Backbone:
C-alpha cells in the first residue's frame, strides 16, 4: 500500500514539472497598436505615426510597414525604424512591457493613405517566441487650400512659362510641362538627396540616390503648377516619365517606361496601369484575371526587368518567361492520337514571396515537447522499477508467511 502511495506522489511530481516546463509557451502573445497624431491632413503637412508593441518581458520585435508612396513620403523615425522596416530592441534587463517607434511622413498626394504594420518576430528576454501581430491606420490626405501663401498651392503665384524650363519628350501626358528650377520647400522622395542637373545647358534642381546614377528625378508641372510631380529623366534617351513606385510587403520598386529597344514578352497585350492620377504602360495576359499586370520596374537593389503586379494585394513577382505558358493559338488544335500534356495556366496570382510549405516548429515548443517525452520516459522507468520492487517484496512476504505457517504446523 505504501509503495502505491509513493508511486502516485512521484507521478504527481512529474506532472507538476511538465506543467512548469510548459509555462513559457503560455505567455501572452505580442500585441501591437498603431496610431497617428492626426487622421486628416492636407498635402504639404506632416503626420506622425506611433507604433507600440506590447508583451510580457519583450526583448526584440522585428517587422515591416508599408504605405502608398504616391500619397506619403517617409521623412524620419526614432526608436528603431527605417523606411519600411522596424527593429525594436529593449535595453532593460529582463525585457520591457512595451517597445515604441515613431515614424514621420510628409503628405504629398491627396487620397486615403493606409499604413500597414506587421510585426513578424517577437522574442522575450528568455528567447521565447511571443508570436506576431498586425495593425494599421488610415489617414485622409486632402488637397491643399487656395491660399497663395501655401507652398503646395502654386496656381496663384507660379508662371513657369517665365521661370521654368520647357521639358521636351514628356511621356504619359499631352500637356506642356515645365521643369521647376529649384526643389526648395519640396519634400524629396525617400532615399533621394539634392542633385544639380544640367538640362539644355541650364542648371536645375534635381534628386538622386547617392552613388546611384540610373534614376534622376526632376520636378515638372504645367504652366501654373497643375499636375505637378516628380519625373524620371532618362538622360540617354532624353525623355521624361512619371516617378511612380509600388510597394510590396518588404520592398519598393520604381516603375520605368521601357523604350523601343526593350522586348516585351510574347503573348502580352499593351494597356495602361493607373496609380493615383497617373498612368504608366503595362501589359496584360489574355485570360480571366483582370488584376494582374506585367510592368517594367527597377528594384531597390538596382535590378531592372519585367515583374507581375497584382493590383488587389499589391504584390510583385519577377516575371520568368520559362515558367509561364506561351499564348494559346487562335485556332483550335486538331486532336492527335496521343493526348498532349495539359499546359500550365496563365498567371492569375502573384506574390512577392513564395509560399513556404515546410512545417516549422518553434524551438521553444520543440524543447518543451522533448523535455516532456524525457520526463515521461523517466516516470515509466521509475514506475516499472517500483512495481518490480513492490512485486518482489510481496513475493518474499508470501514465502515468509508460508514458512511461518509450516513452522506452526
Residues:
Amino acid at each position: 500500500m505504501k509503495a502505491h502511495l509513493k508511486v502516485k506522489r512521484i507521478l504527481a511530481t512529474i506532472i507538476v514539472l511538465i506543467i512548469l516546463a510548459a509555462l513559457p509557451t503560455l505567455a501572452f502573445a505580442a500585441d501591437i497598436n498603431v496610431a497617428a497624431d492626426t487622421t486628416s491632413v492636407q498635402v504639404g503637412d506632416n503626420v506622425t505615426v506611433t507604433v507600440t508593441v506590447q508583451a510580457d518581458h519583450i526583448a526584440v520585435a522585428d517587422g515591416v510597414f508599408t504605405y502608398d508612396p504616391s500619397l506619403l513620403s517617409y521623412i524620419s523615425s526614432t526608436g528603431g525604424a527605417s523606411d519600411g522596416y522596424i527593429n525594436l530592441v529593449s535595453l532593460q534587463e529582463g525585457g520591457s512591457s512595451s517597445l515604441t517607434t515613431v515614424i514621420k511622413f510628409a503628405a504629398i498626394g491627396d487620397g486615403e493613405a493606409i499604413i500597414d504594420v506587421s510585426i513578424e518576430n517577437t522574442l522575450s528576454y528568455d528567447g521565447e517566441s511571443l508570436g506576431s501581430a498586425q495593425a494599421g491606420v488610415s489617414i485622409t490626405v486632402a488637397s491643399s487650400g487656395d491660399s497663395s501663401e501655401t507652398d503646395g498651392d502654386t496656381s496663384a503665384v507660379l508662371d513657369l512659362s517665365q521661370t521654368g524650363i520647357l521639358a521636351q519628350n514628356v511621356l504619359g501626358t499631352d500637356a506642356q510641362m515645365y521643369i521647376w528650377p529649384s526643389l526648395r520647400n519640396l519634400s524629396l522622395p525617400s532615399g533621394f538627396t539634392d542633385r544639380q542637373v544640367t538640362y539644355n545647358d541650364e542648371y536645375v534642381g534635381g534628386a538622386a540616390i547617392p552613388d546611384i546614377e540610373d534614376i534622376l528625378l526632376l520636378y515638372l508641372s504645367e504652366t501654373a503648377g497643375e499636375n505637378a510631380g516628380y519625373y524620371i529623366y532618362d538622360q540617354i534617351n532624353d525623355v521624361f516619365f512619371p516617378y511612380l513606385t509600388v510597394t510590396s510587403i518588404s520592398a519598393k520598386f520604381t516603375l520605368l517606361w521601357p523604350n523601343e529597344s526593350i522586348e516585351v514578352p510574347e503573348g502580352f497585350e499593351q494597356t495602361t496601369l493607373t496609380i493615383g492620377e497617373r498612368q504608366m504602360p503595362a501589359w496584360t495576359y489574355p485570360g480571366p484575371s483582370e488584376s494582374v499586370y506585367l510592368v517594367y520596374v527597377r528594384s531597390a537593389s538596382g535590378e531592372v526587368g519585367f515583374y507581375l503586379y497584382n493590383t488587389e494585394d499589391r504584390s510583385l513577382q519577377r516575371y520568368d518567361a520559362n515558367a509561364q505558358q506561351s499564348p494559346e493559338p487562335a485556332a483550335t488544335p486538331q486532336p492527335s492520337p496521343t493526348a498532349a500534356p495539359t499546359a500550365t495556366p496563365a498567371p492569375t496570382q502573384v506574390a512577392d514571396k513564395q509560399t513556404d510549405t515546410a512545417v516549422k516548429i518553434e524551438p521553444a515548443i520543440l524543447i518543451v515537447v522533448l523535455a516532456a517525452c524525457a520526463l515521461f520516459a523517466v516516470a515509466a522507468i521509475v514506475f516499472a522499477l517500483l512495481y518490480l520492487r513492490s512485486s518482489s517484496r510481496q513475493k518474499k512476504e508470501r514465502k515468509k508467511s508460508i514458512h511461518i505457517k509450516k513452522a506452526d504446523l
Observations:
- The radius of gyration is 33 Å.
